[in-house]
Design brief:
The protein is an alpha/beta fold. It has three domains: 125 residues, no CATH class; 200 residues, Quinone Oxidoreductase, Chain A, domain 1 (Alpha-Beta Complex), CATH 3.90.180; 137 residues, Rossmann fold (3-Layer(aba) Sandwich), CATH 3.40.50. It has 16 helices and 21 strands. Strand 5 and strand 6 form a beta hairpin. The chain is globular. 47% of the residues are buried. Bound molecules: nicotinamide-adenine-dinucleotide and zinc ion (2 copies). The site of nicotinamide-adenine-dinucleotide has 28 residues, from helix 5, helix 9, helix 10 and strand 15. One zinc ion (ZN) binds next to loops. GO terms for molecular function: oxidoreductase activity; zinc ion binding. Belongs to the zinc-containing alcohol dehydrogenase family. InterPro entries: ADH-like_C (IPR013149), ADH-like_N (IPR013154), ADH_Zn_CS (IPR002328), ER (IPR020843), GroES-like_sf (IPR011032), NAD(P)-bd_dom_sf (IPR036291), UCP014543 (IPR016621). This is DUF3783 domain-containing protein.
Length: 481
């Protein structure tokens, strides 16, 4: 009996089925170690790593159990029943199962426990390293003007409401460039950047419900507690928690990496429907949320004429979401002909206007019997685009400003007196991700045409160079860890 080799980690005192399994293990003389739900996943991950075992975070649904099976988590109940049956019949070689872990919920919130585990590791391995040393690739904000691909520790759960997500696809956002250029004062040098990603849950804190290890999820750009005044009113961008608002990849480590820790995981992660691919879901938490929110707050009515300034990723998401309200026309305005061409190619807008060689105000007046657009969404952030926005709006229109300007803007109230405009501005309240994924799943929203370039995470610096220099008509770049 390989008593020193075989360790059963368990935290299933409350389950009769699992207690049965424990008894069998005891009879087999397998060394047992009680771990709290807080530490079990971290523990098996670490053990697997140290002992060179194959380690999977997938729920096991395969046929039977073999000598090869070493470390596993997330057994489904059906597989567990089968395992029990086979073990009772003595069909499974006694030393085959080096470690079995069976619970689904875990978190790692105590450094003390980590220390204790470290001792266990030392005991098992004769002083070898622990999981604290497991490393990953990550894009780091080094300081103004500098990003670099570096090795970082794989994150672990620090709060019971956290989740650890294995990133399967990340993207680069214009806001990442704002960080690089030093124009995001809250950005903390040294952090892992990236706030638009999808992945798979590999660890869950003990206070996260409604999600399971193995779930494919879209990560929300915003972290929100769900409990403060603003969260209760849906204004999650202004969540008053210390990590509230845009924290990921700005104030705390983000997702241009192999793994990311997501605080308030229950609010910040949304399950991706099975028929939706990573590329279809990638923009859910950031630019698609922005487009969705922008269209929503613009109060678009059926048959409205909606003008969107900026045919960049954000503007295009706004156009795609504006369509959901059945406007009579969507007018896309940009100075970049290749972007307008993409809009035409995919039928995203009814009319495109290149404002570098024609006057949008004049054209829109022609289209609208001299009135102007019923709704204007400004998603360009150019030098003159705020002025264009209010000028092309008809009296009593709603003008929604999604753009983030690097300079102050002038609101020339005397000139617009009597036009009775309503301005709406701000950072997205990204709390409609479930609805967005449903629309994607139903084929009503498709942003895959925005992905013009794909790079492995290892080539992130090349990807940044291309994105920053707007080479090769780049729209969106995705990074695959
Ligand atoms: N409010 C939010 O929560 C939120 C979220 C995401 C992005 N944003 C902001 O939205 C804006 C757009 O983001 P993006 O990723 O699409 O950026 P982008 O730079 O890719 O797109 C901007 C588009 O505007 C066009 N443009 C620039 N100057 C123009 C001008 N003078 N006239 C007409 N078109 C002009 C550009 O050619 C480009 O196609 C940025 O300011 C970004 O910071 C805001
Ligand atoms: Zn962004
Ligand atoms: Zn809150």
């Amino acid at each position: 009996m390989a008593g020193t080799e075989t360790v059963l980690l368990y935290n299933f005192e409350n389950s009769p089925k699992l207690r049965g399994l424990k008894m069998i293990f005891l009879k087999m003389g397998i060394r047992m170690r009680m771990v709290t739900p807080d530490m079990y996943l971290q523990t098996i991950g670490a053990l697997a790593h140290i002992k060179g075992y194959e380690w999977t975070d997938q729920v096991y649904e395969g046929d039977g159990f073999s000598d090869e099976m070493m470390v596993m988590s997330g057994f489904s109940n059906a597989r567990l029943d089968e395992l029990l049956r086979q073990m009772r019949k003595n069909k499974i070689p006694r030393i085959a199962l080096k470690a079995i872990v069976t619970a689904h919920n875990a978190s790692w919130n105590s450094l003390m426990l980590h220390g204790e585990l470290g001792k266990e590791h030392a005991m098992m391995t004769g002083g070898a390293s622990s999981s604290q040393n497991a490393m990953m690739d990550a894009v780091i904000y080094k300081g103004k003007g500098q990003f670099a691909l570096e090795q970082r520790k794989i994150p672990s759960i620090v709060h019971p409401k956290d989740a650890i997500v294995k990133v399967t696809l990340a993207s680069i956002c214009t806001s990442d460039l704002h960080i690089k250029h030093g124009s995001v004062p809250k950005a903390v040098p040294g952090i892992v950047v990236g706030h638009e990603m999808v992945g798979q849950i590999v660890q869950l804190g003990s206070q996260v419900s409604g999600l399971a290890v193995g779930d494919r999820v879209a990560v929300n750009v915003e972290t929100f507690c769900g409990e403060c005044f603003f969260c209760q009113n849906g204004f999650v961008n202004n969540c008053t928690d210390a990590n509230g608002g845009w924290a990921l990849g700005c104030r705390i480590d983000g997702g241009q990496a192999e793994y990311v820790r997501v605080p308030f995981a229950q609010n910040g992660l949304t399950k991706i429907p099975d028929n939706v691919t990573d590329e279809q879901a990638i923009f859910t938490g950031d630019i698609l949320s922005t487009g969705y929110w922008g269209a929503k707050i613009s109060e678009i009515r059926k048959n409205d004429v909606v003008a969107v300034i900026g045919a960049g990723p954000t503007g295009i998401c706004a156009m795609l979401c504006a369509r959901l309200y059945e406007p009579s026309q969507i007018i896309a305005i940009d100075i970049d002909e290749s972007r307008l061409a993409l809009v035409r190619e995919h039928g995203i807008a009814h009319v495109t206007i290149n404002s570098s060689d024609s006057d949008p105000e004049q054209i829109i007046r022609q289209i609208t019997d001299g009135r102007g657009a019923d709704v204007v969404i400004e998603a360009a952030g150019g030098k003159d685009t705020f002025q264009t926005a209010w000028k092309i709006a008809r009296p009593n229109a709603i003008v929604t400003v999604l753009a983030l300007y690097e300079e102050d803007q002038i609101l020339p109230l005397p000139h617009m007196y009597g036009k009775n405009l309503t301005f709406k501005t701000g950072g997205v309240d990204a709390c409609d991700c479930s609805r967005i994924l449903e629309l994607i799943s139903d084929g009503k929203l498709d942003t895959t045409c925005l992905i013009t370039h794909r790079f492995p995470l290892k080539d992130a610096m090349k990807a940044y160079e291309l994105f920053e220099n707007k080479e090769d008509h780049v729209m969106k770049v995705v990074l695959k860890p």
